[in-house]
């Protein structure tokens, strides 16, 4: 152990730790869940500290030596290095101050290492005076929150949804000539092609991609520059814009300085909006997964219109049983993501006066939801959708036996007579054609033409 000092006094810190006294206090105070802050959130903090150092250098608030040292250490964090030195639990101080100081201390101690100075010496860089110059946890943590979630949406969720969209579109084209019975209320309805059915899924995912883009835009305002309460105390008036410019160069995203720093720090409405978009995406994925597993139910006593890829044994007692496990996985992932989003909505109500004090939990929940949705969508695409096959005999049998083809007779014999035909056919176990011809309601040629399923789609 080594002894480090912060504003509360001395603290024993593990010798090999790059963090310092303030972080160690939080390690001791918050051993709650064992869930650390999301990796991309920590990486984004590193990118933010790099941008702040470069902005302070340009504004002549820090010298070249300190700016270079901070930049090297901060970019190492952005690249995913030193992950073991960010041990803090999600359930910590609600502003994220502990994590902000964790970042500052790791950067400062890494700068000491690079300069050949002892860890904890705060030479050549001080964690507060230099790493946190012109900043507060109250503006850096909301900024890192928006930055990291926007990156997650762009780099994780969008590619996953694009992959699923392409796979579903491929199936839409492959199934375009397969005429089948439609279903509403889980009951037989008029015909549809399997391609038309899948085109609906494609459109849902395309809308999910639009919602993802909307969520990214929603996060474009950054709180940096507001410092403690939004007034920008101890900051430079050009600091925020300088930081935003650097972040945009690094991410190719279109961030802007918050139009009102008091809202940007006190409210988390933008994150609640993002949670809502993710819930809509979860609903779409759940609908698709449930439809596919129902269409593949059987193999002999269910619908069985689709044949799902067999990925693993389905039962420990029933030999040969295969279950729609990839569909079930996706549904569970969506339920979990939805619950994380509900947490974000609740957190959004926890803003009091000039600060929302649930930032670490919002960060954790949004990143969890995005990661789980992205990973599950990729697996569902690769191990289910890509291998879907059509069971044409089952589809043809359902189509031939469907009573709802009677709908096409309405223009010829009217609703009431058509209803009578359907009910009699069902009661006697006969076909619609047989009843129509027996009651001399239409000629054979006319009824055959009217009941042709291909003309109903």
Can you describe what's shown?
Strand 3 and strand 4 (187-193) form a beta hairpin. With 457 residues, the protein is mainly α. It is built from 16 helices and 10 strands. It has helices at 21-29, 39-58, 64-78, 97-114, 137-174, 194-218, 239-251, 261-266, 269-295, 325-348, 359-383, 392-401, 410-413, 415-428, 432-438, 444-450; strands at 2-6, 9-13, 179-184, 187-193, 221-222, 256-257, 306-307, 351-352, 355-356, 389-390. It folds into 3 domains: 17-133, Orthogonal Bundle (Fumarase C, Chain B, domain 1), CATH 1.10.275; 139-176 and 194-218 and 267-391, Fumarase C, Chain A, domain 2 (Up-down Bundle), CATH 1.20.200.10; 402-456, Fumarase/aspartase (C-terminal domain) (Ribonucleotide Reductase Protein R1, domain 1, Orthogonal Bundle), CATH 1.10.40.30. The mean pLDDT is 97. The record marks 328 as: Important for catalytic activity. Involved in the TCA cycle. Catalyzes the stereospecific interconversion of fumarate to L-malate. It comes from Thalassobacterium sedimentorum. Its EC number is 4.2.1.2.
């Amino acid at each position: 152990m080594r002894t480090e000092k912060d504003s509360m006094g001395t603290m024993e810190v593990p010798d090999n730790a790059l963090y310092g006294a303030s972080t160690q206090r939080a390690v001791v105070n918050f051993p709650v869940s064992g869930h650390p802050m999301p990796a991309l959130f920590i990486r984004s903090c590193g990118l933010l500290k790099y941008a702040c150092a470069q902005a302070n250098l340009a504004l002549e608030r820090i010298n070249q030596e300190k700016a270079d040292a901070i930049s090297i250490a901060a970019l190492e964090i952005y690249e995913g290095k030193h992950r073991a030195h960010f041990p803090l639990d999600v359930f910590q101080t609600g502003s994220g101050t502990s994590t902000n100081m964790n970042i500052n201390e790791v950067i400062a101690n890494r700068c000491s290492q690079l300069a050949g100075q002892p860890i904890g010496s705060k030479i050549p860089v001080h964690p507060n005076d230099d790493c946190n110059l012109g900043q507060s946890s109250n503006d850096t943590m909301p900024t890192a929150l928006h930055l990291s979630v926007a990156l997650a949406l762009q780099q994780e969720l969008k590619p996953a949804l694009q992959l699923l969209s392409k796979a579903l579109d491929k199936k839409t084209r492959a199934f375009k000539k397969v005429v089948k019975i439609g279903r509403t209320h889980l009951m037989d309805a008029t015909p549809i092609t399997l391609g038309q059915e899948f085109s609906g899924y494609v459109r849902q995912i395309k809308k999910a991609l639009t919602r993802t883009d909307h969520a990214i835009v929603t996060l474009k305002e950054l709180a940096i520059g507001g410092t403690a309460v939004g007034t920008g105390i101890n900051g430079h008036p050009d600091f925020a814009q300088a930081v935003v410019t650097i972040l945009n160069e690094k991410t190719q995203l279109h961030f802007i300085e918050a139009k009102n720093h008091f809202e940007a720090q006190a409210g988390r409405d933008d994150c609640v909006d993002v949670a809502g978009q993710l819930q809509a995406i979860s609903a779409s994925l759940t609908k698709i997964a449930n439809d596919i597993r129902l269409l593949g139910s059987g193999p002999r006593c269910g619908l069985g219109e689709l044949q799902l890829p067999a990925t693993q044994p389905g039962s420990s007692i029933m030999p040969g049983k295969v279950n729609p496990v990839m569909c079930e996985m996706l549904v569970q992932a969506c339920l979990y993501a939805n619950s994380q989003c509900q947490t974000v909505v609740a957190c959004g109500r926890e803003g009091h006066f000039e600060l929302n004090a649930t930032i670490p939990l919002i960060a954790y929940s949004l990143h969890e939801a995005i990661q789980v949705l992205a990973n599950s969508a990729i697996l569902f695409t690769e191990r289910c959708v890509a291998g879907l096959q059509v069971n044409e005999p089952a589809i043809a049998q359902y189509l031939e036996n469907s009573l709802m083809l009677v709908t096409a007779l309405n223009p010829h014999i009217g609703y009431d007579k058509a209803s009578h035909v359907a009910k009699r056919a069902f009661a006697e176990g006969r076909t619609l054609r047989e009843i129509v011809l027996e009651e001399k309601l239409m000629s054979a040629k006319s009824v055959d033409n009217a009941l042709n399923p291909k003309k109903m789609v």
